[in-house]
Specification:
Largest sheet: 5 strands, parallel
Shape: elongated
Number of helices: 10
Distance between the termini: 32 Å
Number of strands: 5
Strand content: 5-15%
Structural class: alpha/beta
Strand order of the largest sheet: 2-1-3-4-5
Length: 211
């Protein structure tokens, strides 16, 4: 049964929802956010969140990618089904993978962050989520042009191929390079973009292509 869409307006409060199956993570994030002046409400599963959905005010959601029963991608799809407006969602993962990062960005997440998350990064992303509502651009992160400018032409080509699912071996064969050279380019991409993993780098280029 298709659920009727509703129009929402982002809550003007400083409320943040945390959806993560790890009790320790929920507790730590709640303590951190409350110390920074935010109100929090935590859920241990996506189903738990949606059971209360009709009584919730739209607000930013810190969402774990890997959860049992309903993972982060399934959560995003369910949220889009229920709300005409895309709530600002920040995806979190302790073990990110490139396809998940790309899919999360295509589904409109504000950002994709790897755990452990630095406080300054989290605060910057949340400020953007609140100020732009359901917008999917993050002012503190590079734009598509900046991504290209920060990388050499070869590094940019390698990043695009990674984003399209090509393995290191396939990229090496396509570009007539050694796998070791491709791995060197991967390391340089992460360093030049100022991210912590190739998954976050892919999220950058996915955001640029989407915007």
């Amino acid at each position: 049964m298709r659920i009727a869409r509703r129009e929402f307006h982002l809550s003007p409060s400083n409320l943040v929802y945390v959806v993560d199956d790890d009790h320790g993570v929920r507790q730590s994030l709640a303590m951190l956010l409350e110390a920074c002046g935010y109100e929090t409400r935590s859920f241990g599963a996506g189903d738990e969140f949606f059971e209360s959905f009709r009584s919730l005010d739209p607000a930013p959601v810190l969402l774990d990618l890997h959860m049992p029963d309903m993972d982060g991608i399934e959560f995003l799809l369910a949220l889009r089904e229920r709300a005409a407006m895309k709530w600002p969602v920040v995806m979190m993962s302790g073990a990110a993978d490139v396809p998940s990062a790309v899919m999360a960005m295509k589904l409109g997440t504000v950002d994709f962050l790897e755990k452990p998350i630095q406080t300054s990064t989290l605060m910057s992303v949340l400020n953007t989520a609140f100020s732009r509502g359901a917008a999917t651009k993050v002012a503190a992160r590079p734009s598509g042009n900046t991504v290209r400018e920060r990388l050499s032409p070869r590094e940019y080509d390698v990043l695009q191929m990674i984003a399209h699912g090509m393995t290191t071996k396939a990229i090496a064969a396509h570009l007539n390079l050694s796998p070791r050279t491709v791995e060197m380019h991967r390391a340089n991409i992460v360093r030049h973009l100022g991210v912590r993993s190739i998954a976050e780098a892919v999220a950058e280029i996915a955001r640029a292509e989407r915007d």
